[in-house]
Amino acid sequence: MSTRRVGIIMNGVTGRMGRNQHLARSIAAIRAEGGLRLGGELVMPDPLLVGRDEGRLRELGEQFDITALTTDLDGALRDPDYPVYFDAQTTQGRERALSMAIEAGKDCYCEKPSATSSSVALALAQQAERAGVRNGVVQDKLFLPGLLKLAHLLESGTLGEVLSASIEFGYWVFPDHIGAAQRPSWNYRAEDGGGIVLDMFCHFRYLLDHLFGGVRAVVARAATKIPERVDEQLRRYRATAEDDATALVELANGGIVTIHASWCVRPYRDDLFVLKVDGTKASAVADLRRCRFQPGEATPRFTWNPDLPQELDPREAWIEVPARAPVQNAFRYQWERFLAHLVADEPFPWSLRDGARGVQFAELAAESIAERRFVEVPEW
Fold this sequence. Notes:
CATH superfamily of the largest domain: Dihydrodipicolinate Reductase, domain 2
Largest sheet: 9 strands, mixed
Strand content: 25-35%
Mean pLDDT: 95
Structural class: alpha/beta
CATH class of the largest domain: Alpha Beta
Helix content: 25-40%
Shape: globular
Strand order of the largest sheet: 17-16-15-14-8-13-12-9-18
CATH architecture of the largest domain: 2-Layer Sandwich
Number of domains: 2
Low-confidence stretches: none
Oligomer: single chain
Number of helices: 9
């Protein structure tokens, strides 16, 4: 079996997300297994690690047996041996680097959000389309086991017409040295591109688009619930970005979705992310790994009587949806789809334009927050 090498410039993999999900659990894992089998050949990703700290790059190279590394992004983009560019930097650094990569003729794949504003995100998508380079944005939640099961229920018509849905996301991010914050401090500084609206509403947009066929309007509220936090050096700083947001979204079919996202909640639910859908034929509830549904035939007949204990347990009459394929890391799965797009020209609909819609949704939610009104979502 022949092996095809694919040179990939990987920028920003010294950060938590880039290192863990994209390098360790995706590209390095594919390499460790001898490549990705596509038809009659093996595709072997060959990364060139790029970053600002040479010492940290060398540590990563030694850990994953990668010798190609540099602090010179311009030089990397001029190298014809690496026709693909991947970006997992902070959002503010990503905009310029993506534009440079597109100008250099590189096929591009990047973390979300693709930019800090919808105008820049759309401009990057249009630049890539004019240049004819293949491109994509990470949309990992679509490929989580629980969401894949939910997508199957929706596609099969099991739920009937979607009436409403609700999204609950979040957990307690410790604001002091005692709890050791689980997220980087820039997430809570608006001047550094932080905030839960820009971070999470990009995810919500692609979920609503791909699961429910798009959105029509949004109204939102947000707040900075914890005004002071402690950074990585245990120094106190003022949080200038919102850490809690609530939205009401009208779907294209007229259904309604409620969203609550917060880093200031202590969850009492099955997982850190839960999406519940109610339809005319059945209801379903999905978390990161599991999905359960309740068809009309199995729906209990509840009677409201606050004077007596509830005889029926609302959580019992739900049926577990079995996995249709082996569980795989969502980031790796999308990497494999992008590699198949590059090598075998397989479809890859999660483009920079798709990513720009996520930034647009976050921006429109922010507009709604500022103006305290419903905002229509134009189609791009």
